[in-house]
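Re: weekly structure request thread

Next one in the queue (318 aa):
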Amino acid sequence: MAISIEKFQEQGGRLKTDDLDFEQFRSQPLQPHVLRCLSYMHDIEYQTVLYTRELLVTPAWKDPQFTAFLTLWNYEEYWHGQALGKVLAMHDWPAHDVRLSAMRTFNKRYLFWSPMMFWTLGHVVRKFPAVHMTWGTINEWTANAAYNRLGQIADHPVLTELLGRIMRQEGRHAAYYASYARDLLEGDRRAQKVTRWFLEHEWAIVGSGDVPKIETSFAAAYLFGSGDGAELIERIEQRIDQLPGLAGLQLVSTAIRDATAHVNEVEGSVPAVPVPTSVPVSVSVPVSVPKSAAARSTGEPANHEVADATTADATTAD
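Done, posted below.
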């Protein structure tokens, strides 16, 4: 079984932001490149409800532990979107319903057909649960790395605190996904083969198709195209390699190279990343993927499992 949903539930809830001074963004505004990345993140966090819609038409809805996780995951991601929207609003950038309505209009054809597509996949591909839990694991790892990297680049006290809080919740999501995925992949060659095929042929950076391609490419290239960002991606690749049957894919690093090439083609170049003036707090994180929860008697995630999901050297603040 995956990480205990009871333990997951105890540690979660609405993101706390009422003690943060969002007005500080008026006197210390963020740079446009940072706001562009935040806009992309805002859109993806809010999109979680539609990802949930797609998963609930697969046979996985029969598993009450899985549907409980989806409920909590969706709730927490909603408040992440709300918080990021507040930051955008402080800069008079579009946020919340204005952005969401535009995004859903942009993607209306796919959104119309996607439940039917997922129903088909869920009922035809026998090992599809392993596919979507592994897919979700990789997406959560990359999301956490993106928040980590953006906090380093922006070097803003309020944003650093906010992103650190989001990362702690995202870390729990990643730990649950990774534990569940490992259980489904471990010892099942068919599940490994099917999952590997889908990842090799269909996986793309989270948000691909949900927002204009250039926005996904920009966020990926700006955050991960070089320096510390590239190192974070290498750590994600090491984690993927440790999932049963998935070594050597190089999925994320290949996607980052493609995104960088796309930005160079469309916009001429990827903007240079500024050097932070302060040193972020670092948390030393082991590279190992959490072992199967079936091997644990308590069902409680070990500390290293939650930490592992923060994608190493995470910028956090208590």
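The two ends are 31 Å apart (CA to CA). The mean pLDDT is 87.
Next request, please.
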